[in-house]
């Protein structure tokens, strides 16, 4: 059986409806989360279907990618709904919709660079600046390591670093 991106959602829906486990597993493997994130079928999914997909796939994709695709889906939903109802601002609507998904995202496993470049500019999705700060700290804790370097004279220098291949190679030499 061959799948294509435009049919993947129909296959997933049928597999779920008729308990076709093998078809569902194959369809999920084919459905590369990032590739389908740009398709019209994905962007027009109902919220319940989106939640199912997110909860089923959350352990199989990078948390950065998961957040980005979900945010894009929510933004698309908001833009579609705003054409019908312009009484609520785009940011407030996104905040309301993404709130249901926030517990799913593992911010602690996201790359610090992603947190700063993608999450911080969208900080309005959090209820407060304190909540955003906690997310950033949680994301940073796992990525910062304490290092002590001793020179030839026995002088020690200690500090915390964010792992970087260049820094690690320089320290090793």
Describe this structure in words.
The protein has 173 residues and is mainly alpha-helical. The protein folds into 3 domains: 1-31, no CATH class; 36-142, no CATH class; 144-173, no CATH class. The protein is 56% helix and 7% strand. It has a two-stranded antiparallel sheet with strand order 1-2. The protein starts with 7 loop residues before the first helix and ends with a helix. It comes from Panagrolaimus davidi. This is BACK domain-containing protein.
Order of helices and strands: HHHHHHHHHEEH
Global Rg = 21 Å
Number of DSSP E strands: 2
- How much beta, percentage-wise? 5-15%
Mean of residue pLDDT values: 76
Helix content range of the residues, please? 55-70%
Query: What overall geometry do the principal axes of the alpha carbons give?
Result: elongated
Distance between the termini: 53 Å
Domain tally: 3
Oligomer: single chain
Q: Count up the helices.
A: 10
**Major sheet size, sense and barrel closure:** 2 strands, antiparallel
- Please list the strands of the largest sheet in the order they lie side by side: 1-2
Protein name: BACK domain-containing protein
């Amino acid at each position: 059986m061959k799948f294509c991106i435009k049919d993947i959602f129909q296959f997933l829906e049928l597999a779920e409806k008729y308990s076709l486990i093998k078809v569902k597993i194959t369809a999920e493997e084919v459905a590369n989360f990032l590739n389908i994130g740009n398709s019209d079928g994905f962007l027009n999914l109902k919220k319940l279907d989106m939640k199912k997909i997110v909860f089923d796939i959350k352990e199989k994709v990078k948390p950065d990618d998961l957040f980005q695709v979900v945010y894009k889906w929510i933004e698309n939903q908001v833009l579609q709904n705003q054409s019908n109802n312009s009484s609520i601002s785009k940011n407030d609507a996104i905040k309301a919709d993404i709130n249901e998904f926030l517990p799913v995202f593992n911010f602690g496993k996201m790359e610090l660079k992603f947190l700063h470049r993608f999450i911080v500019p969208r900080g309005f999705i959090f209820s407060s600046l304190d909540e955003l700060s906690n997310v950033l700290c949680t994301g940073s804790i796992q990525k910062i390591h304490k290092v002590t370097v001793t020179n030839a004279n026995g002088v020690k220098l200690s500090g915390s670093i964010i792992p970087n291949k260049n820094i690690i190679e320089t320290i090793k030499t």
